[in-house]
Amino acid sequence: MADGATQKTVTLLVDGKEISLPVMSGSVGPDVIDIRKLYAQTGMFTYDPGFTSTASCSSTITYIDGDKGELLYRGYPIDQLAEKSHYLEVCYLLLYGDLPTAAQLEDFENRVTRHTMLHEQILNFFRGFRRDAHPMAVVCGVVGALSAFYHDSTDITDPWHREVASLRMIAKLPTICAWAYKYSIGQPFVYPRNDLDYATNFLHMCFATPCENYIVDPIFTRAMDRIFTLHADHEQNASTSTVRLAGSSEANPFACIAAGVACLWGPAHGGANEACLRMLREIGTVDRIPEYIDKAKDKNDPFRLMGFGHRVYKNFDPRAKVMKESADEVLGLLGVENNPTLQVAKELEKIALEDPYFIERKLYPNVDFYSGIILDAMGFPTSMFTAIFALSRTVGWIAQWKEMIEDPEGKIGRPRQLFVGAPQRDYIDVEKR
Ligand code: CMC
After folding, report:
1. Disulfide engineering: 246 pairs with which of 90, 112, 256, 432, CB 3.0-4.6 Å?
2. CB within 6 Å of ligand 1 — which residues?
3. What pLDDT is attached to residue 4?
4. Which residues pair with residue 32 across a beta bridge?
């Protein structure tokens, strides 16, 4: 609010008494009503399960305009970053607020690259899992376990500890995910190669073996890097809010990111990419699409079109647009543009976008609709899709976690409730029940 300007307020009438609540404005986006004193003034809480109308924090990192289909990282549109930037530069942007100079970028890349190896003892930790464990179970467990291996970066009150923990996680997540994959297929772990860029190194750790030379196709590197960039952050989504909530209790950073991984796993969130590809394969052929559209519209059937709809986007998800182009590019260059799954996806998208059910509810394809097709073409099994999402999102979680820790207004997250259970009653001895 400028000097001399009047504070914008809203007035609430409670039992005939007027309560004035301040309104806060951001740099863009809707104003928010500051209800922090509401309980003290009225004895009432607000009720908003699912946080559909609640801003849980203020943030400078990522902005989404769901009606326009706009996604900005630190002000930069996602399509420009996907086209012109690359993942580690985007990581720098998300963490530090501005695009780096060439020298800053080189320094950052060196700092991340120094941390790509895992403590050798972590190998034993991997080996404790069943071979058929889902990679997300392994990633969640290993990320949480990092706090047992890197004690020297768990003091959240020390900015240097926070910085080192951040770099460690950004650097080690590709190694953890690649090793979860290698373990599941019974192949030896491939150690990181610091002469390779971030995306190439990840692909190398996933697909190389010690017995022969493996050169990563630059088309795959570009597609992988784009997938990382498009998933890097997405403001206060479920997993990010989980990380913030876990962090608000001053838990160590590795534990907080493990909490984010666990939340991401669900099919309504990051698990949708795996569920989407399974659905596209189940549909199988274009002629079966109407049957699945009908199922999605039937309120007595729990089936939903995976990769469709979003809490915030009520217009095309801008990430899905870039992802669709990338799918065309990768499959075209592999010479498999007639891939039946891609054909089903394109036709399904077309039919759904013309259907009044989807039009009325503003249900558009989201980021997960096309990402699975690209990852599948690259040779990843579906069980790895969400793990790759977790790898990509780690930087966003960390940037949001750091912002929360450094916020002077920070408080432990502690929502209240509308209690609808039994009021106080006296204990009855078991023989009298
Ligand atoms: N298929 C069919 N109907 C749908 C779908 C869908 N995918 N998504 C929403 N609807 C309907 C829903 O039944 C409801 O209809 P009605 O008003 O008649 O009851 C209406 O649209 C609004 O849905 P909602 O459940 O109130 O919306 P929400 O904001 O709570 O849920 C969502 C958002 C993403 C969980 C949901 O759209 C969904 O389950 N989509 C499929 C899963 C998916 O693709 N998730 C990935 C999201 S993007 C990546 C990420 O966040 O990780």
Report:
1. 256
2. 237, 268-270, 272, 296, 304-311, 361, 363, 366-368
3. 52
4. 24
CB 74 within 8 A of CB 97: yes
For the chain, residues with pLDDT lower than 70 are: 1-5
Which 3-state string (H, E, C) describes the chain?
CCCCCCCCEEEEEECCEEEEEEEECCCCCCCEECCCCHHHHHCCCCCCHHHCCCCCCCCCCEEEECCCCEEEECCEEHHHHHHHCCHHHHHHHHHHCCCCCHHHHHHHHHHHHCCCCCCCCHHHHHHCCCCCCCHHHHHHHHHHHHHHHCHHHCCCCCHHHHHHHHHHHHHHHHHHHHHHHHHHHCCCCCCCCCCCCHHHHHHHHHHCECCECCCCCHHHHHHHHHHHHHCCCCCCCHHHHHHHHHHHCCCCHHHHHHHHHHHHCCCCCCCHHHHHHHHHHHHCCHHHHHHHHHHHHCCCCCCCCCCECCCCCCCCCHHHHHHHHHHHHHHHHCCCCCCHHHHHHHHHHHHHHHCHHHHHCCCCECCHHHHHHHHHHHCCCHHHHHHHHHHHHHHHHHHHHHHHHHCCCCCCCCCCCCCCCCCCCCCCCHHHC
* Whole-angstrom distance, CA of residue 46 vs CA of residue 421: 18
pLDDT at 332: 85
Strand partners, 212: 209
| pLDDT value, residue 2 | 43
Strand-pair partners of 62? 73
Ligand 1, residues 136, 235, 311: which to mutate, most atoms within 8 A of Cβ? 311
The answer to whether 91 touches 99, Cβ cutoff 8 Å, is: no
In the sheet where 70-73 sits, what is the strand order?
62-65, 70-73, 76-77
pLDDT tens track for 23-46: 999 999 999 999 999 999 999 999
- pLDDT tens sequence across 332-358: 888 877 788 888 998 999 998 999 999
Question: Could you tell me the distance, in angstroms and rounded to a whole number, from the CA of residue 91 to the centre of ligand 1?
Answer: 29
Residues 6+ apart with CB under 8 A from 108: 88, 91, 92, 100
Residues 6+ apart with CB under 8 A from 298: none
Atom of ligand 1 nearest to the CA of 317: 48
Distance CA 272, CA 257 (A): 20
